[in-house]
Amino acid sequence: MKKNVTKFRGSRTCGGGTHKNRRGGGSRGGRGNAGGCKHHFVRNYMNGMAYGKHGFKRPQKVLSNKPIVNVGELDELAEQLVQYGEAHKQGDIYHINLAELEYPIVKVLGNGRITKPMAITVSECSARARSKIEEAGGSIEEYVPSVKEVDIEPEETREPDVEEDV
Q: In angstroms, rounded to a whole number, what is the distance separating the alpha carbons of residues 14 and 5?
């Protein structure tokens, strides 16, 4: 059986009817992404380009990018933090200030096992993490950032903001 390529070799239209057929973009349904929502929707759908609205986008005010750490990770990293000088050990208790690290951590979560007693200073802590740390003999201290006092001059000593004409 001959292939169409060989069968139509030498003929003017290669089985496409008259010489006007198979010319331009109209014979293929348009050029590029034409007809993606209409006559080529099956092709687009199979390539993952379905039209219309899909999914759900969470509101920006709900999203948070707080740096977090789990108590299991803290338990594993306690020795390394002491070696690097980011934490210190008094007796059996590891004292870790997560808010004053090079990359501060805002919240401690309760995933993982904790075997070492730790005194952790952090801004936020989940209830599960707090209970696990206290069961291991540690404690959670709330981090309060130091507020810099701003000197404000009384209005009487302040010079008026008047522009002079030159």
A: 8
